[in-house]
Write a structure and sequence with these properties.
elongated; single chain; Arc Repressor Mutant, subunit A; alpha+beta; about 20% strand; about 110 residues; three-stranded antiparallel beta sheet
C-alpha cells in the first residue's frame, strides 16, 4: 500500500482501530470521524475493503447472520495497525511543521 494514504482509506483504518465493524457501522463511523464531510457509498466501501484485505491490512473478524443476511465484521491486522501508526505520525509531524510556519516560526 502506498503512502500517504487517501483520506477515505485513512478513516476506514482509523474506524477499525477501536473494534471490528460491519459495513454499515463503518459507513457511520467514517462519517462521524470526518464530521460529515465524507460519506462512503457501499460500493466504494466494499471496494476499499477488498483492496485493504488484498494488501493484508484488514481481515474478516467474523460473520453474523442478522435478519437472515450475513454481516461481515472487519478488523485491522497487525500490519494495518502499524501502517495506521506510521501514517498518523507522518501526519502529526506535517501538522506540527505547518502550525509552526503559520505562527511565524521556522521548521
Amino acid at each position: 500500500m502506498k503512502t500517504p494514504l487517501q483520506e477515505p482509506t485513512f478513516l476506514i483504518l482509523t474506524a477499525l482501530a477501536r473494534a471490528p465493524l460491519h459495513g454499515y457501522g463503518l459507513i457511520l463511523e467514517v462519517s462521524e470521524l470526518s464530521q460529515g464531510r465524507l460519506s462512503l457509498r457501499p460500493g466504494t466501501l466494499y471496494g476499499s475493503l477488498d483492496r485493504l484485505s488484498d494488501d493484508g491490512l484488514v481481515t474478516v473478524d467474523r460473520t453474523e447472520v442478522v435478519d437472515g443476511r450475513a454481516r461481515k465484521y472487519y478488523r485491522l491486522t497487525d500490519e494495518g495497525t502499524e501502517l495506521l501508526r506510521t501514517e498518523t505520525e507522518r501526519m502529526r509531524q506535517a501538522v506540527q511543521v505547518a502550525t509552526l510556519r503559520l505562527a511565524g516560526g521556522f521548521a
